[in-house]
Design goal:
The chain is mainly beta. It is built from one helix and eight strands; from the N terminus they run αββββββββ. The strands form two sheets. The chain has a four-stranded antiparallel sheet, with no helix packed on it. The protein has a four-stranded antiparallel sheet with strand order 2-7-4-5, with no helix packed on it. A hairpin with a 2-residue loop joins β4 and β5.
């Protein structure tokens, strides 16, 4: 019985450790790379790295912030994400996703990735 409990706890702890961070706090005058430069540089783990996908950006705080998509230093798109708003942006291979915040209070954001379905 003790062995079964121990195995269960080990499996649970491994799964908790593998879960990537999806909620981030942005501080005043901060620009954060979320995805696009590679392992060790990205703030998020994109399970669809190496293929086109969607980034689902949710503002779960009380402060607006902006997001931008770049490729090789060239800005492709900039858009605002207001409180309680969700934006879905298409990220093509080679795109970088940044979050920019300039207000004094902290902003909270959640980011998840979705596969682009082939229909």
């Amino acid at each position: 019985m003790k062995n079964i409990l121990l195995i269960f706890v080990l499996i649970l702890s491994v799964q908790i450790e593998l879960k990537a961070q999806t909620v981030f706090e942005l501080n005043s005058n901060q620009s954060m790379l979320m995805f696009g430069k590679g392992p060790g540089q990205d703030a998020t783990i994109n399970p669809f790295e190496g293929e086109d996908c969607y980034a689902v950006i949710k503002n779960i705080g009380d402060e607006p912030f902006s997001a931008r998509v770049q490729q090789k230093g060239k800005i492709i798109e900039i858009f605002a994400v207001n409180p309680n708003e969700t934006k879905k942006v298409k990220l093509l291979v080679g795109h970088e996703l940044y979050l920019d915040y300039e207000n004094q209070n902290k902003a909270l954001v959640s980011i998840e990735y979705e596969k682009i379905s082939q229909k």
